[in-house]
Amino acid sequence: MYNTFLSKLLKVSACVAILLAGVSISYYFVISLPQQQKQERERDFLFSMRQECQKAGDKLYQADVKSLGQNSLFVPEYAYNESLNTCLYFSGYIEKGWTSKWVKDSFTNKEIISFMSSGEQVVIGSTCPSCLSNEAFNERKQELFNKN
User: Which of 41, 68, 79, 108 lies 20 to 30 angstroms, CA to CA, from 26?
Assistant: First the structure.
């Protein structure tokens, strides 16, 4: 009787161990591994897009250097915006009291937002209606550049 009980307990324990191993292995291959692979693909995609954005934005920057001169230009910034699914290029220039800044789509050279001021006076008609100050433009720019 004692041996029968031990043998049944051993069988039940073995079945539970096999079941737990099966569930663990299934979880790894069905849930965990695909999630890891998806994260790796997303990370690789973002890395390649950042490189692509750097190249595309640098072409726009070089064109700006030719037309505006390097001394008056801001240091450029490049980013990939996932929600817009495009590359962004930020730059601007200061010349004789005028300040002009922009964020452009690196692929189309289209301004997404821009800001222009003469001294303290903001020039109306920039492509950022809510950018009534330099600070407001900088906040909007950061929002665009941080959506990665």
Answer: 41
Sign for the CA dihedral angle at 119, 122, 124, 126 comes to: positive
- pLDDT tens digits, residue range 53-106? 899 888 999 998 888 876 778 889 999 998 888 999 999 988 887 888 899 999
Q: Where are any strands of DSSP class E within the chain?
A: 77-81, 86-95, 98-105, 111-118, 121-122
β-partners of residue 91 are 102
Looking from the CA of 104 toward its CB, the CA atoms found within 13 Å total 21
Phi-psi region of 6 (alpha: psi -120 to 50; beta: other; left: phi over 0): alpha
Tell me the pTM. 0.69
- Asked if residues 103 and 141 have their Cβ atoms less than 8 Å apart, the reply is yes
